[in-house]
Design a protein that fits this description.
The protein is 41% helix and 26% strand. It is an alpha+beta fold. It starts with a strand and ends with a helix. A hairpin with a 3-residue loop joins strand 14 and strand 15.
Length: 481
Amino acid sequence: MAFDLPLANGSVLAVSEIVRLVPNKRLVCKALWNGQDVFAKVFIGANAQRYAQRDQQGVQALINANIATPDLLYSGSIQDIIDAGEVLIFKAISAQNAEVLYQQLLDSQQQPERLHLMLQLTNTVAQMHKANLQQTDLYFKNFLVDTDTVYAIDGDGIQAFSALFKQRQKQRNLAVLLSKMDGLDIDWAEDCYAHYCKQTDIKYTPFDYANHYDLTQKIRQKAASRYAYIKVFRTCTDVKVKQSFKQYMAISHDFDAIDLSPLQLDNALSDAKNRFKSGNTCTVGKVLMADRNLVIKRYNIKNVWHAFKLSISQSRAAKSWANAHRLQLLNVATAKPLALIEERFGCLKRRAYFLAEFIDAPDIAEFFGLSMDTEVKQKVAYETALLFYKLNLLKISHGDCKASNIKIVDGKPVLIDLDSMQAHTYSWWFETKHIKDLKRFMQNWAKAPETATIFRQAFMQAYNEMDDYMMPTILERAKIA
């Protein structure tokens, strides 16, 4: 979407691409201004001037602290709407967004490079803290990386620390950064914490690190829960919500289905060729909709008592929706959630539907039933063991680890059927649930001793590599070791 935006100084901002849009507040765009490539933040609405000023003050604070940030080339108003339109124009630099870079390194399994990136980001945060500054919106996307230079962006989130409990604020701010790492990469938190201590002249102690690690994990779990339980149930960057007296609907922003009414979904499930499961509580089928193959799960009502119970509790469809988004945020592979539809009568719930992307791949039992090289099976078994270990770190139990709920895509496990999944706060209760998941998973191979042996070896390898102390307590209780 290209357009020209005339500015108050007589110049023209030629917008070529909108990078991010927050309706009625601001947009970030790529553009051409005075013959050079730039990025521009356009603030609109009644508070445009206040937000632009706050962003500019944050950028100036970074400059004063000698922290790398893209040059601010222009600050001013949009022509003819001076009271409700402000623009900040920044020099475009040949750097990569840290969030994109981290994901690329994660996908390509480049561990040393990921650790180097995390140390770079930690160093930049340490620089901010030494200058009494913090990025209050601390996401990887708010940093740009060019070889050995890290640029801090988004001046709106740059604030000075308050006078009270300053050291505690700094520790928490660093923990927020480290909580954005992948679950398996959290083992590098000690390297990053030690590097931070060195850069800020703080004495490193194992006791302080242990407390900081616990804080990092708590922040990660709280952020994931807020996203899963609150954010994806209202309109946000990832989801659009429509609600009426008779229906609630949450749809992924990149899902363009025209008709998602219960009648349309029921018609799709009425064809026996489409159905995988026809039960009293749940009907499951595959359909083609909006040029995408997807799975519809309809949660049925068995009787009057069941209807009453459903009306006052969270639906299983809503649990699947929340858990799928939780896993996506935590970088655990699952089928992409596309829509949640609930029939309602006011605040009382009735039938519910959960739509997810269809994964055209064998489940783990089918995969291991195929004739293939033992080395391939060992690699897939190890990846599966890492998945369970990651869930252990994240304190997430699946609740139904039968083989059909784990698909194998490109040699990696993908979790589906998430309506029994739970995120836990207390370690002692989670450990019981995790052991139950492990036992249920191993039951899949009760009649396949060779496969069971491959998985036992994989679990012992993965858990032992990651944690020498966890392996005997967890795996022995699960009767794997």
